[in-house]
């Protein structure tokens, strides 16, 4: 990733869906780890009884391997029951600021809150006043109660002035997970204070978002810790948001997407001494093997990439002792015709030292450069989810040019000229702008697969972090139609994107005196020139969109990966499916 340094009980209908963290829907298991003779990598043999995520292949540096952690299970059930009669450990109620309105007697006007408060002799109203709980987003209040309700605890969780988006209710689910963890609650119920304000379809989407947020909020990646606590949460009842097959379908969809997001998080969280390019290729191959009814895998080694004239990609990979692996998964629907061909291209730098332009000084983030494969994690997380969802009418290519950007006598130097697989030449004026060099050949390859639409994701520039911060991905595309599709997908997923201009006049700074282009231009607008560089390797007949996810790939507060991009990619593919 190019860096910016210093600049920078009533009637009850129950539908239960099992959520695994990640999803256990895969029947593919792995058995033994055996040493591969040609590289410091361990190969996975097939057919066994241990889940995929617990036996990630690993390299030997530091003698580190992910522990065999147990996978928590959370069952979700839909219920139509009076909240005061529900029995369990924690009753969580999502409230807006309007829901907290009081009458002349200082009692809640909201029917559900008033009912709960009456059973508690006014304790809920009293506590919310004393704690200055106003229903703002992120606010919460949890009471341990001696009696009056079937629940041992009741929580009010703030939704803000109003709540209608997937992101808002996903956040509610995360708040439920946090409250359950603090209370060590095993059995939880979630209700909205005003469920009748929602349409039937909105209720289904809301339930799905709450379930997704609860699963993701419960997940903790403890594979590299010597000790870890098990999650107490076993079941969640969603009250008042519908029932029946449609809700069950929504809950399964949430489970499938959540499993992909968690898989993406685990890939990014894994350190570079564990997740080498070869191991990333193994993990991708495992997805294809797990869902072999819809997936095939092709892994190209350096010699095969040389035959395809991928000089730009191989130039980046040349310095590392860990060989490059060019990864291509192909999804085809289980039945019916293919109406559209898509490609998802992810940047796959499992570590980025910067090369000879080594990352140094405050703000260079070299210690976090394991996340420079966040684009590939999003792509493979989406592949895992889609392998379970199995959409019809769409063929999807998942493409990652995996390698490391290191320093050695065999590595590329500043001033070297690389030749990409489309014949264009690139003068390397900064070895730390390596991601675009790998993506160049990956994009050419994607076009050669017959893709009609391509979305690439990359932790590409520090400039995008400076411009958009840590929660918004930058979007660049010459296609308004494709932009519309992807932004609709991001709205459905709750992930934030912002479109930035592809200002063609900025290309002037990317011109070379001895090659077709340089790989970095002027510092101002450098996220734009990076996107313009990628555009040189996409066929003009192909719709293409680039997402710079350098900011939202990582949660600095929690010091772990976010899984950003997975949900949006899944939604986009489904929008293109029949």
UniProtKB/TrEMBL annotation:
GO BP annotation list: proteolysis
Keyword Protease carried by entry: yes
Domain (Cytosol aminopeptidase): residue spans on this chain: 430-437
Name of the protein this chain belongs to: Leucine aminopeptidase 1-like
Family, per entry: Belongs to the peptidase M17 family.
Gene Ontology MF, one: metalloaminopeptidase activity
Quaternary structure annotation from Swiss-Prot or TrEMBL: Homohexamer (dimer of homotrimers).
Keyword tags: Aminopeptidase, Hydrolase, Metal-binding, Protease
